[in-house]
Design brief:
Number of helices: 22
Radius of gyration: 28 Å
Number of strands: 7
Number of domains: 2
Distance between the termini: 66 Å
Largest sheet: 5 strands, mixed
Strand order of the largest sheet: 4-3-5-7-6
Strand content: 5-15%
């Protein structure tokens, strides 16, 4: 694949290419991006393709990769553009100079930057139907952006915030761990006599250009918080790819140096033993990684737990709407092809025009579920056209409510807990009467039945 070919361009040793390819495969499946089938799943192969064409100075391939990145994952067009810019800068005759003395680098960078501009232009000119991006100041006022929130971003721990945070950190994960060897490559380069394979390295500029661009965009994303989306989007995979290639090269260079040193001892048996030992250890480290680390493969697949409920809802009209504060509601659109009024998964807080109505829905949903008397529950069902409501046995336990995801709406959650301490919410009192299906302690209720009970005043007071 592209990882193999890129590594061969850096060092013409097939073993290094094979190691880079294997590490890239492990890197991909240690995260859920490709498995998600979402737009970011296409970023990984497309960015690798761009790197390959960039190192080869293939103008058509580089431009084509940029266009495809723009269609699937525009953020990485900025990374590609940054690489095109820094590759225009070269060190010659004791100082930095633009270009490398050839026309091709200008055609490559100029054509690539023009393609990047054209592919990003529609995004710059288009007005989002979901309104403006939330500002950093506004985000700091919302629990959504702190621990336990849907957009968990801010924390008081600087190490977590700047380095390990999934959204704010420079490189949140280091998987596979063997790629950490890449940080030792600069040290190996200082000893060319001990490690003569370093003299065969080529195009090494890409290995400092990648982290340089990644860090620059990471800092820019923090400075323009949320306007360039999340900082880790620019640095995470860029730095991992750097370490993958540097790690593969460092591993081969190190093994070659060790074997060369042993061969000079004039002990063939020792050299053979070292060769087999090194080969066995390398195989164990590379191929055995998924065996000794249970998190080596993490596609983050979700298994549906309510098959009868899914089947029932899927058999209903396509325009029904389901209300629930349970995390099971996250899966209803996927497993039933039916809409939910709101859920944690879809409460993404970055676009004001999307997040504000979603937040209002959730707040009203919480208030309605824990209402002690009919008016607000009836009003919410009628306002949003709710057809079914899913609850479970723990939905009305104050401790479970306090520990659930809805705590990111503290004011209405506090009101819900106060109601629970005062009496039994109306919805809980109607659970047996309006139940249409029960599965794994989840009760699916008919909204029509709830409204009918309220109108006929058949529900008892708390």
């Amino acid at each position: 694949g592209f990882a193999y070919e890129i590594c061969l361009l850096l060092i013409p040793v097939p073993v290094a290419g094979a190691i880079a390819s294997l590490l890239t495969t492990q890197l991909i499946w240690a995260h859920d991006d490709v498995a998600s089938g979402s737009p970011r799943a296409f970023m990984l192969p497309l960015f690798l393709a761009f790197l390959y064409f960039l190192v080869r100075r293939n103008v058509v391939g580089s431009i084509g990769s940029i266009v495809l990145l723009g269609l699937f994952y525009p953020q990485y067009v900025f990374v590609a553009s940054g690489l095109l810019v820094v590759r225009l800068v070269g060190w010659r005759e004791g100082r930095f100079r633009l270009g490398d003395g050839t026309r091709r680098i200008w055609v490559l960078s100029g054509g690539g930057l023009l393609a990047a501009f054209l592919v990003l232009l529609p995004f710059a000119l288009r007005t989002s139907e979901y309104g403006p991006i939330i500002t950093a100041e506004a985000a700091r006022q919302l629990p959504d952006f702190f621990s336990g929130g849907r957009g968990n971003f801010f924390t008081d721990d600087p190490w977590e915030f700047w380095l390990l945070g999934m959204r704010s950190g420079l490189m949140p994960t280091l998987k596979p761990p063997l790629m950490i060897l890449g940080i030792f490559l600069p040290l190996l380069l200082r000893f060319p006599r001990t490690f003569p394979l370093t003299q065969r390295l080529r195009h090494m500029g890409i290995l400092w250009q990648l982290p340089g661009v990644a860090i620059a965009l990471f800092l820019a994303a923090h400075a323009l918080l949320f306007r360039l989306h999340l900082p880790s989007r620019y640095s995470g995979y860029t730095l991992r790819f750097t370490l993958v290639f540097a790690g593969a090269i460092a591993l081969v260079v190190l093994l070659d140096g060790i074997l060369r040193g042993l061969s000079q001892l004039n002990r063939s048996w020792l050299s053979a033993l070292a060769l087999w030992g090194a080969g066995g250890l390398l195989t164990l480290l590379l191929l055995g990684y998924p065996l000794y680390d249970p998190d080596a493969i993490d596609p983050n697949y979700t298994r549906g737990r309510l098959p009868e409920t899914y089947a029932f809802l899927a058999a209903q009209p396509v325009d029904i709407k389901v209300a629930s504060l349970l995390r099971d509601a996250d899966h209803f659109p996927t497993f039933t092809q039916r809409s939910v009024l709101a859920s944690r998964e879809y409460a993404i807080p970055y676009h004001v025009g999307y997040a504000a109505p979603m937040r209002q829905r959730i707040i009203e949903l919480i208030a309605a579920q824990y209402a002690l008397n009919p008016p607000f529950l009836q009003q919410t069902i009628e306002k949003y056209g709710i057809d079914y409501w899913l609850i479970d046995a723990n939905s009305f336990n104050p401790q479970d409510v306090q520990g659930s995801w809805i705590r990111q709406y503290p004011r209405v959650t506090a009101g819900a807990i106060a109601n629970l301490n005062e009496g039994t919410p109306l919805l809980a009192r109607l659970a047996d009467t309006c139940q249409v299906l029960e599965e794994r302690e989840r009760v699916l209720m008919s909204a029509d039945c709830i409204l009918k009970s309220i109108r006929e005043e058949t529900v008892t007071l708390p």
